[in-house]
Fold this sequence. Notes:
The complex is a heterodimer. Chain A is built from no helices and 11 strands. Chain A has strands at 4-6, 10-13, 19-25, 31-38, 42-49, 56-57, 64-70, 73-78, 87-94, 101-102, 106-110. In chain A, the strands form 2 sheets. In chain A, strands 2, 4, 5, 6, 9, 10 and 11 form a 7-stranded mixed sheet that branches. Chain A has a 4-stranded antiparallel sheet with strand order 1-3-8-7, with no helix packed on it. Chain A starts with a strand and ends with a strand. By secondary structure, chain B is mostly beta strands. Chain B has strands at 3-5, 10-14, 19-21, 24-26, 33-39, 46-52, 60-61, 64-69, 74-79, 88-96, 100-103, 107-112. Chain B is globular, with a radius of gyration of 14 Å.
Amino acid sequence: DVKVTQSSRYLVKRTGEKVFLECVQDMDHENMFWYRQDPGLGLRLIYFSYDVKMKEKGDIPEGYSVSREKKERFSLILESASTNQTSMYLCASSVTRYEQYFGPGTRLTVT
Amino acid sequence: AQTVTQSQPEMSVQEAETVTLSCTYDTSESDYYLFWYKQPPSRQMILVIRQEAYKQQNATENRFSVNFQKAAKSFSLKISDSQLGDAAMYFCAYPVYGNKLVFGAGTILRVKS
């Protein structure tokens, strides 16, 4: 079975802090994704990566950056956290156009 | 822009009954996949069912089936013999630009005992 893990289930940070969210997948998938999930808006793509050291902006990249130094790991970075980044963050991985496999999510609260 | 519309924010069903969740999408592609995902209160998103657009036969997975109307760009999910464990948020999605997924806003399904 594919396993996607995320470093934290719950995280509380202060405004202005630098925040790292880590995601690891164990199935050698080329593609990895970061989404945020907000009520009524579904999942919105922040960034994705189709190979090591490659990244592309999604629909809402502002205020975020990513890093993919190894194939299995994809990190989301909030350079200076703000209260409007309070959300659920989901990581996923996939092979080509097939279904994506999701991690359990990180509920981030910025105070 | 490609969009996915789930017009039912919430649905309720009695245990053992059947419920249908609606989804419409907009794409200019001719060959694509469509997915229904389930997100229970524990939050882990899991795939429920997948439909390949070039296949005319509707996909079925146990109690879950789809009604795929390609011309109408409609992709509804039918859950038969509903169980308490079916209570969740359900998302319709399809891939764009090769590998990205576009999601609908989701439908909360409540199952009454």
